[in-house]
Amino acid sequence: MWQASESAPCLSWRASRGRMGGPRITQRVFTQAWEEDAISLDFYRTYYYANQSFYVPKKFFASIYELKNEELLECSEWEGLWVGTSIRISNWVEKYIGISGDMDGIAQGEQMQFPRCSEGYWWLAPACRGSPQMCIPVLIENRRGNVFLEYMQKAAAWRLPWAISFASNTQFRTRLNETPVIWNHQTPAADYLNLKPVLVQFPSFSKEVYEQGLRINEEPAWPYSKLVARDLERWLPDVREMLQKSWWTVDEAEKFQLESVETSEGFYPDAEEVACSWLRNTRDRWRHWIPSKSTCFAGQGLFDLSTKTFQSNRSEDSVCRTCLPGTHSFGIWDELGSTAECRPCSPGLSQPSVGSRECTQCPPGTFSANLGAVVCEVCPQGAFQDGFGQSSCVQCAEGTTTLIRGATRSEDCECSPGLYLHNITTCRICPKGLECAGGYTSPKQLAGMYAELHDGGFSVFLCKDQQHCPKGPPGTCAPGRVRRGCGSCSAGRQASADGSCAECEPWAVGTWLLLLAMMGAGLKATKWIGKTIRRAALTVAVLGVIFGQVVVCMQSVEAIAQFSLNLTEPAKTLLEILSVFSLNLERFHLSCFFSTESAVMEYSVQLLIYPVFFVATILFWPLFRWIFRMPMPSFNEYFALHGMLLVALLTSLTLIVLQPLQCRGNPNGLNTVRARPDVTCWTSEEHTVMVAMSVAGVLVYPSATLAAVAFCTWQYPIWLKSQAGLQHFDAWSFLFGRFLPQRFYFGLLLCIVNLVTALIPIMMVSAPALQVGMMAVVLWFRQASQCLLWPWRYKLANYNDLALSAGTLLLLNLVCPLLIIDDQDATRLLSILISVSFVALPSCTCFAGMCSLSAMHTAEQFDMFLCHHKSGTGAFCRLMALTLSSHTNCKVFLDSDCLEDVTTIFDTIRFRCRALVAVLSPDTLLRVWCVAEMTTAYRSNIPVLPLYCDDFAFPCEDGLNHLESSWTEGQLESLNSHGLRMEYVKEALRHISSYAHYTVNRKDTLTNQQAMILKLAEPLNLKWIKARDLTSIASRFSGSFSSKLFTDASDARILICSCQDPEVISASLVLQMLVQAQLQQLVHFVRFSSELRQAKVSCPVLVILSKAAFLDAAFADCIVLLFELQFRMLLINDSTFQFPSNEELTRIGSLQGAQALAAFRDLLKIIALALTPTTRMDIVHKQVSLICHRLGDIEDRTPLSPSVTPGSLANDLDSEVEPEFEELAGKPNVETGYVHECF
């Protein structure tokens, strides 16, 4: 039979008869007792203790003392066998005592009563307890406590001389023939089959006795079973069918086990071999067990192997396969008997499992529309189904839906989310700004929205602040707020931080008084600091400028806060604080003094606040004067104060006056003023009045301010040229005093930027994306102009302005994700802006590339690059440039003329020069950049023409190896940063030292020096614009003058005198060439005093003062002779001369003599003009022009009379200087010198 339970993992089929468990002895002991004493040890009566006077069965068994203790379980462990088990030991003990009355056989443990253990290992039955040696040992395996208790009942009931114990292991099994005992044996047990165990039989099994809990009879028979998996019928029904038909006898089963027991040779036959042997010998028996391949069982269906499809009729290729999900097994009959087919589930039914016998109906809320549904589909939202086994769902009426999927009732159909129930009859679309949950609930206004009933529906407006209109029923305002959009506090209430309006506090008036007191105290403190602590005046000025910058920056942030932003705390509160700049009356608690419910009234107060403040500064100044002892300000101070405020607050004032024009759309399609949601734009009377007031405010505030600033900026250069114009500077110092004089226009630029900043949130209120884009452009322009112009007078103010601009731009970038853009037009506009920006990026790159190519074609190319040490050969290089430009078309690169950016000088050598002339003087190699220029030319294969000056010589190899010791670490790092390693430098210098070189003596005559310079240019194959005959070098002058250029001093009309330093001589020769060219007069350079005696006394002398000139003996002789012969002298400072101290003059007198010292002292009384040959050529020309102007018309000059002193001559010459040359005189070109030094 088959048995199953819900919890059992398998099915059990039991044979009709099986073996019983119970005590057993070996066949050898049984046979021995029968043969010797004719005793049948397989019957329980044989062991009856009263019969042992006739026979003694004990002699055929071992004594309890013959067993090994390690094979037995100690008494101390017995109690644990029953603790925690399902055996109810108390019932067993009670039954045992009821049978035997043996109280001595029971021991009391800590937790229960259990069998008493004697001899350390045994429980002794009453029949042999007095003589333990007469007890027959009985061993129980596996510590089976229930078997132990059953054997105790048998021993007591039938007076059996048994000693019962637990076997601790299975070692005793191997010695059962040598040490015979009785043991419990549960068949089948393959280990014992070779012993041929004999069952000791007791009275037959009695169900009544067994149910009373007595175990004195034979044990019930436990049949053999076939165990199979519960799902075997589903997965392998043919195997189940075969197992159900199979059968074996008990003897056959024991034979199988016996064949698997270890033989005498220790060989274990393979179980598969034993099974195969049985199959070969019993073919006729088992072949009927195997079902036909086309006999399908429940859960299966016919499957055609050739077409790989399920079918409904048998064929030659038919087999059985498990039905797939979506089908069920259906039994059919044909001529071969019963089988089954797989049919698809009908609509309304489904089956998710394989091997199913039937399909299930779809429950309410679901459906299946097609054949063969695996699972039922859930009714979608908006439909329901209240029946079983349906193929479709019922749709809800129009405008209604279900809140869930799988609805099971028609009552589940309600208004859809996004609709609301109107007049309890229809569902209407939820207006924008309301939240409609659907169903039968009323709509709620969203936070930041205000809804009111209009024409039977809802009209939704945007609120000024989200906290003003909390989420709730339509028309809900924060406590204390009134009017449409909850934009105003009711009279007697003041705005709170949470958006509500609370009762006014007594300190509201005190706030204003405290503000006025702080203002006066601040003015007083500022004036006191400025007058009392003079050294702090500059700090106060800087702090004032910085404070103004912060105020302007905060107004820009306030303009950004005007955007439509979805802000959260604490950023929302921080930005709301800035609303004080736009004179938000709620922040000043003015509703505590008068009603602000009228939009016109509130706007009027905002417009009049500054005029009231202006009047207050006039009326209350006497009060401040009396309290703080402050003097009355002048008109200019009043004007500067209010001008500064108007310029600084231009952004805020513009935002205020343009408030009526900041109209934004609402969900209902109407436009309202952003600051006053209760004012409808362009259609309401209030808005018309506010617009008129706005126009007047625009004319009074931003327009007038900007016009005044623009006019003053235009007049600024004109005011500088007149004494009357300077009087305006005190009044307008607030505008121009903060900036550098050359950046006077930056105040106008700031006003324009601030005005545009205020216009962006006003004019583009409906386009948030465009607001951000335009604001970014304005801020970028502001930052770029700041970086390029660096306009502020104070360095700290420039850095502060740059930091504030960068911070404002960063803030703009951070608020971009917070923009509220729920409009398709705004999104489309944003996409267009992104596209334009995307296209602009590569366009800018292309434009830059085109400019680079254009610059490459238009960049000036040079024939010669003059590499020189500026302080050592700068004037000589100027002489070279003048000579080459006069006689050839050579384009010379001289850093003082052509260098614009020091970072490009190496590229100029590489790509724009034909050759490099290394003008080598003793200090050239000590200048790291001169060496870098020569190394770059060498490595770029640019010809290098060495020109040795003043006995120059290249250092030896050891000197080259230690060349870097003359440079600093910073200079070496600069070389490395340009890729010029020291090994490259040394290699270049070694090669250049081996080149054929030119030599020039800078103390030689101008003719010889020019000849060497022109010879240097011959390898370049230049086009000569003058004859090579250097004797006609003055042919550039007209008439007979040209032939007299190189005459002696007697022919000269102008003389030049200087010391004999080579660089000063070069400067003198440069001056000679330029003065001759400009005045068209012969100029002679005097080298020795003897030449002065040949010159005409009427000739003016240009005396060049240079470093260490007073130490030159020849120069001292010339100066003495000049004063002796009373020449007219004009002093020239070559920018190296330093006015000597009295100590230095004394030392000079000791060297040159008293007469020379007196001449030097008189010489120093003459005002000197500047000549800087090493600066730009245009400046040199201006300096020479000034010198020529001071010389005047030499034809009208008369010799100095004895009464004319050098000092009077200097005064006379100084009075003739025109104003336009004043700034140039005596002022070297610091910028060019600095550039060369840095390089």
UniProtKB/TrEMBL annotation:
UniProt keywords, alphabetically: Membrane, Transmembrane, Transmembrane helix
Keyword set includes ATP-binding: no
Tyrosine-protein kinase ephrin type A/B receptor-like domain: residues covered: 365-413
Transmembrane segments: 507-525, 537-557, 607-627, 639-658, 689-714, 744-764, 802-820, 832-856
SMART domains registered for this protein in UniProt: Ephrin_rec_like
Keyword field contains Glycosyltransferase: no
Annotated InterPro entries: Growth_fac_rcpt_cys_sf, Toll_tir_struct_dom_sf, Tyr-kin_ephrin_A/B_rcpt-like
Name by which UniProt lists this protein: Tyrosine-protein kinase ephrin type A/B receptor-like domain-containing protein
